[in-house]
Design a protein that fits this description.
Number of domains: 3
Number of helices: 9
Largest sheet: none
Length: 191
């Protein structure tokens, strides 16, 4: 006879004995975990560590998470992406995105991140003409990491990826007509 001290955990006991959870316990666990994840994500200051612990608990005990949670994740991601896109050089806004995106990349979610990927790419193109001195090393590190989590490769040469506005205008003029002076000569004259 086995005697345990303290309250028994029925989920742990069922797992240890390799028996399936009774339907009422499985359904109530799914409901409680899904609601708690939803509460954590919809709070003004989302607790992503709590969400991660809840997801790990669900995985550990074989509890399914309600598929509607993915919609809550997407809404939160969209809100954070919009905030960051309006002020992309703000490090704090950038740092809030990465943990959420990394949670969306683990089971049970197979989240479609195309909207977030498009927003990230648009920001990347918009700031690519900035001089590297305008971006801190910490910002660049977080930016590249977010790109990795979104499945977008950010070149090591970034932010010097795209031509500046001046170079784009020059290239447009050059493609429409044959210039009399080279770009180098124009720069020499303008100085």
């Amino acid at each position: 006879m086995i005697v345990r001290a303290g309250p028994a955990n029925p989920l742990q006991s069922a797992r240890e004995l390799a028996i399936p959870l009774p339907p009422i316990l499985r359904v109530s666990s799914e409901l409680v975990l899904s609601n708690e994840i939803r509460r954590c994500l919809t709070a003004e200051d989302a607790d992503l560590n709590c969400v991660q612990v809840l997801l790990e608990t669900a995985k550990q005990y074989g509890i399914s998470i309600d598929s509607s949670i993915e919609t809550v994740f997407r809404a939160r991601l969209e809100l954070l992406m919009k905030g960051w896109a309006s002020s992309p050089l703000e490090l704090e806004a950038l740092m809030r995105l990465q943990p959420l995106v990394s949670l969306l990349r683990i089971p049970p979610f197979e989240a479609d991140l195309w909207e977030a990927q498009n927003a990230f790419y648009e920001v990347m193109i918009a700031i690519s003409s900035l001089k590297p001195s305008h971006l801190s090393g910490q910002w660049l590190q977080h930016f590249r990491s977010l790109g990795d989590h979104l499945g977008i490769a950010v070149s090591q040469a970034f932010p010097a990826l795209a031509p500046s506005l001046e170079e784009r205008a020059w290239n447009k003029v050059a493609s429409q007509s044959k210039p009399v002076l080279s770009k180098f000569q124009v720069e020499q004259i303008s100085q």
